[in-house]
Amino acid sequence: MRVLLLLLSVVIFASPASAVTLKLGGPTPKATVYKPCETQVIVYDARPEMGISFSSETPNIAPLASIGVRVARVSLDINALEPTSRPGLYDSAYLAKSDQLVEDCRQQGVCLYVALKGNPALGDSNSQVTAPQDRLARLVADIAARYPSVLYWEIGEGMYEGLGDGKTVSSLLKALYPAVKAANPVAQISCAVRSDKLLQAVYEDGAQKSFDLVCAITDAKGFSDDAIALRKVMAAGEDMSKPLWCVFESGFEQSLLEAAFAANNNAFLYAKVLVQKAKPDESWAWLADTRANAGILSKPSGLANVLVETKKPMVAVGYDSKAVDGGIEIQRVMIDSLVPTVIQLRFAAEPPPAAPAKPGAKPVESKPEIDPRHVPDPWDI
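^ thats the sequence. predicted structure below, dont judge the formating
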């Protein structure tokens, strides 16, 4: 079955504080594929996973492992990092704090999702433009190269105050996407939006190839409607297979949460949901009670054969692959629920054309030679 049913169950314990159990997906990784371009494939685990989003500039990640949370959304303040009008002059204290956070997360196995905040023009009185794209691109490239363990970078309408139109978000994505990819080719760029209208404007401005996932900034009450609306825009842009993440900023009442997940469990709408509260302790307690990640934590990764549609004969670099109708099947791909697998493709030699038939003779079809050393692949099911 291509789409696994995501089950929701609520368990009320006979204790003063009731606990909610959310079963998000099953224990088996679900491989989903999308192609940023003809020669690259990205494979990710589509099972939804709960994480946390910190609004504080000094996030405390110490309790996360104990409550089964492995994904943390944090902010990087561009203006605090580069506080003067001189490009490339970074604040040493801010860098030291960032270095420590990234190292702590690396040691504890926490996957960082970094939301970029701020705009160098806000601190540069000599700037004549709202968003100096070249300066931003250089800064983002520097920081992505400094932190190769950070795989997710958010660029969106919440980047700085007053940024709320799709064309400007699109221009940011177009400028920063290649800068991040040059610094870290496996990094993933998130386009964060609060409405389907803004995402539609991003597509209309031609930024479809400048982000790897969409993140909806919403709440539990609007989760279902917002996610469905965004998916429609993504489907119209032939991006249905890209991940959709969500950040819940409010709406943690049990009734709202139950309705939100019940509406989405029968549809493939999201891959990660990050909860955010003003008081982090409340988020930790809620996530500890829900035990939402039990299924993923029981088997966070696995191997699978992956089907990839290709227009011409291709082979996967570094993997065994075989030709199938309409594409190739890549063998034994690691499906990891935290880190997407990036696979490069190259064009394969096309089979020679059929030999011309002699007048009056039957046509002779040329057949590809079979290597006598070939043995059946046990993964062919």
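Residues 1-19, 127-131, 371-375, 377-381 have pLDDT under 50 and may be disordered.
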